[in-house]
Amino acid sequence: MRLLTHNMLASNARGAVTGYPLKLQVVKWSTKEAEPNPEFLRGMLPKIDWPALVAATQALGLPELLPEAPPTDAELSAEGAAADEGSALRRLHRALLEIHIEEGALVCPDTDRCFPISRGVPNMLLHEDEVRN
Amino acid sequence: MAAAAGVMRRSPRCVGEFIGDPLLGRDIVLGLWDSRPISRVSLHRRPMKSPVERRSVVGTLGESRREHTTDLCGGGEERRGEKPRRRQRGERMPRPEVQAPPEIFYNESEARKYTTSSRIIEIQSRITERALELLALPNDGVPKLLLDIGCGSGLSGETLTEQGHHWIGYDISKSMLDVALEREAEGDLLLADMGQGLGLRPGVIDGAISISAVQWLCNADKSCHNPRLRLKAFFGSLYRSLARGARAVLQFYADNVKQSEMIVTAAMRAGFAGGVVVDWPHSSKAKKSYLVLTCGPPSLNSSLPKGKGQDGAMCSDDDESDDGSGDEDGAQTVGIYERNRPKKRQKTKKNGKGKAWLLNKKEQLRRRGREVPADTKYTGRKRKSYF
After folding, report:
1. A90 min Cα distance to partner chain B (Å)
2. pTM value?
3. Are the beta carbons of A37 and B143 separated by less than 8 Å?
4. Complex ipTM > 0.95
5. Quick check: B232 and A133 CB within 8 A?
6. For residues B214 and B254, is the Cβ–Cβ distance under 8 A?
7. Name one GO molecular function term (chain A) (predicted).
8. What is the pLDDT along chain A (133 residues), one digit of tens a residue?
């Protein structure tokens, strides 16, 4: 599971108010190279919950990867940003699309319900008494 | 069989007691000879020639056709003839939805088919391409974040990846997701039940597709399942997670019109605009229904696209379509008898309408110039009980 998905995912369990952001507990993670796409990242940026993304990278033990404030549009579309290893674009790309969480768990902030992640797939199935409706 | 069924309709009794029509005599006489209680005779012996089959439509709210057949009489001559029947040519394979819940039906061997069967792979990718076409994403070359609900082994996701999109796949079957991991699906996979809601932040997804998954929601596989609530949870969470103006294309196989209506109504209640696009409506096998939904207020963009082959054009591989399926369908739905059918409610009150009402009525008719018997001391009088 990439951090992009983690950023979108919320807990669905009964009792969760927003269920967001899910706390990340990482046992194992890996990096898979992917082609950066500036247009996609620019389109995604307004939808990203930045504090949640920063918290996720900190949980991974990469506090220097992302700055406190989200990068501006100009920073992302700067000339040669895709090629430059340390640019804001490449960092965002790495955080969102290249880091894969393999083993660990997601914890609901409201109910402390734990959703285990195994082989990169979080198990979001709820028991019947946890279903909201 | 026909006689027995007729009896059932006329004189509903409780299950144990039923052995046949007393007027026919035969079964009752057997019961009397045998001095045992009738209910036991009917269950342990074979007093009747024809088996009594009890069919009831289960599946909540009568929407899904799931037939449970119980033979109460322990078999007869005709029973022997009809047991383990092989499916004949042209007969329809039962839909997976009526066989088992999805997390059980899609076991390892079933999931394996999705990597080995080239036919399944081809159909899946063809449906996905059509769904993407109906999704009508802006053609600007920018990748989008899409949902694939019921992604299974990631076959549909592969088509999405080919188009350059990022996707998040939902599936309830672990075996199918294992196959997806083996195939190295590019999207992120989630083991989740769509009937419990998608659990996404609002307004973040650019579009959603679903291939042959939504009809599963119409089944109640556990006692805690309520199809209407599950459909509501699914469409509600889908509506919330989609960005404004985004579309969702959900291909589904409805078992009957009611089921299809239930799905569409649930989608509309959630706030979606749109409707069903049917491709190849005249073919029984190539026919595919797509629920095309638009998030947000109706606009020019939300007008429904046309289905393929609606103007009588035939699909290329139409020769495999079978015409017998319609009759088969009819045969399957006939023969649903309720044993404990409630009696038709009598509208009249116990004591009738009364003398005042009768006199008033006669007066009315007289005013209209009709011939009415004169009022006497007998008018509206209660009849003697032996009448």
Report:
1. 17
2. 0.67
3. yes
4. no
5. yes
6. no
7. tRNA methyltransferase activator activity
8. 999 999 999 998 888 888 889 999 999 999 998 888 888 888 888 899 999 999 999 998 888 888 888 888 877 777 776 677 778 888 889 999 999 999 999 999 999 999 999 999 999 999 988 887 6
